[in-house]
Amino acid sequence: MRNNIVAGNWKMNHTATQTKSLINDIKESLEGKSTHCRVLVSPTIINLALAVQEIQGSAIEVVAQNMHQAKKGAYTGEISAEMLEDIGVNTVILGHSERRTYFGEDNAILTEKVSMALENNLEVIFCFGELLEDRLAQNHFNVVESQLKNVVLNLDATLWKKIILAYEPVWAIGTGETASPEQAQEMHAFIRSLLYKTYGKSVADNVSILYGGSVKPANAKEIFSKEDVDGGLIGGASLNATDFTAIVTAF
Ligand code: 13P
Predict the structure, then answer these.
(1) Which of 32, 112, 210, 239 has its CA 20 to 30 A from that of 194?
(2) Which residues are catalytic?
């Protein structure tokens, strides 16, 4: 059966010192609490190795926010899948809307990135979601279907054990506006139906589909209670240990 997952995407926040103290605050705050989900944190790339050291002895996992699609070579400023794996990072977020919007990551680049990550045995958290104008035009299901079809829905069924999906409607990211639990469930059920049509029941039942977009302690429980919502990708609220822990324990 699929896992419940709460992942904190710290984006371009926190120095090394702050990263260390946030991880330790989360560890302390989770101590003695029973958690019913995988707990992932994703610091900025320069702090990944430090984070891997700091989580030792805890159940927290460290995730990268990005990686380059090439194996290695003359790509100044970039990092490869192999480099992530080598420092003990086993999961990478790909396709975040901020990467698509500010760094021009399109379906072709993301297809290469997903394939390079999987070749290196990394687990992928693949993000996608519609813009406000898409939703207002009632075009959100088409947009999501095309984002999935153009990148991940043609992968071999056996690779899906290494893929987590994260539906993040762009209009809900960092805006304080959340999809209602019903809107999240409606889209997640649609996504699962696409998996079912493409791969059948076993893949559809076993892929975790996370919701992202202004998840807070106040709304996490209701969103996570929906049948096809298997957790969250948390931005702003994951930078505060108390809030993040409250979201983790909402399961
Ligand atoms: P917020 O939780 O700040 O809306 O960010 C969501 C997000 O982009 C997680 O990847």
Answers:
(1) 112
(2) 96, 168
